Amino acid sequence: MPVEAARPSPEQFLQLIRRQERGRLKVYLGSNAGVGKTYAMLREGNRLSKQGVDVAIGLVETHGRAETAEQVKDLPIIPPREIEYRGVTLREMDLDAVLARRPTVCLVDELAHTNAPGSRFAKRYQDVEELLRAGIHVITTVNVQHLESLYDQVERFTGVKVKERLPDSVIAEADQIVNVDLSAEDLLERMRSGKVYPPERVERAMENFFTPGNLTRLREITLSEMAHLIDRHNRRAEADRAPMSATDRLMVGLSSRSPNAPALLRKAARLADRLNAPWYAVYIQTPAEDLTRVDAATQRAIGKNLELAQQLGGVPMTFKGPDVVRTILAFTREYDIRIVVMGKTRRPWYRRILGGTILEHLVDHSAGVDVMVVDV
């Protein structure tokens, strides 16, 4: 009896249809401001325009850089919205005007930007997603430190809390990603020459964020991210051509007392991404954590953590049970979980000796499941 060849599933065909209906996204990714992302984006826009493609600028920030401003001159600009906020006039991309103008390609700078209050969406990447849904192709720019999953890592070695962030999935779903690379030495030379910031800002910038160590480390992270994103893109292309294979599933357990749940979620998201595995963020709700017994502030924290998990590409869930370990194990059986990620315990040493930790009990009873402990 002949063996029937493996055929793509209906779900894969639906994904292909949706991708064809959407606009295409190209991202110029850099390690820092000043490496030349906006300039490269505008040069590509000019090349496409000269080839007869309808290209328009949705929003570009030249930051007073002469060579960047020079690239803007020959491209049509869709006038931005001007919003008065606390006595300051802010310029934002006019999403409705871009949708009405409907260029073939729209250039949109600074993908992680936070929009002014009163805008349709809170973040610029959400504006871009709306353009893509409308079938408009978008070329954009972003720095690597704005990726949500890198927040803790960037803060640890630079001391800077990056406020404007976007979900990694936005970049992961891009059709093309170009790394605009520049060595730390060359970027510092551009800084000294006044090609990145005005002269009055250069010295302070070089004393704080733009140190040789920070620039070198961010460049290393960018190159590592690019290698992973290229690999992910190749795997996605292979999945489009062949049936999806089974893969391990991962879960991260949360409680209302998780000491640093956001950091734990970011690490879990990066691990799942590297393993190409679906993952779940599971709030374990025991009788002691019933919502009638948990204060409002704790409930808000739990909600924010589950929302962050969704932004990072996980599936947020609440699972109820009599105690933490038995509930986690019940979840692993029901959802066929193969990897459980837990944060390192912070309990005092004498309590660990007297009764053992949740982590120790979980390891003792988790036959067939790998338990990974991360330091957050």
From TrEMBL:
Signal peptide stretch: none
Keyword terms of this UniProt record: Kinase, Transferase, Two-component regulatory system
Domain UspA: 248-374
E.C. code: 2.7.13.3
Start and end residues of each Signal transduction histidine kinase osmosensitive K+ channel sensor N-terminal domain: 22-228
UniProt KW Signal keyword: no
PANTHER family according to UniProt: SENSOR PROTEIN KDPD (PTHR45569)
Gene: kdpD
Entry's Gene Ontology cellular component terms: cytoplasm; plasma membrane
GO molecular function, one term: phosphorelay sensor kinase activity
SUPFAM superfamilies cross-referenced by the UniProt entry: Adenine nucleotide alpha hydrolases-like, P-loop containing nucleoside triphosphate hydrolases
Protein name: Sensor protein KdpD
